[in-house]
Amino acid sequence: MLKEHRRIAVEKAGIDINNTFVLDNGMILEMTAPNEAKILPIKVPSSPIFVDGYSLSDVKKTVISDRKMLAKEGFINVIILINIGKKRLQKSPDILSRGFIYLRESQKLLVETRQIVTRLANDEIKKADGGKIEVDSLKEKMHEKLEAFFLQKTNKKPIIIPVVLV
Question: pTM here?
Answer without folding.
Answer: 0.64
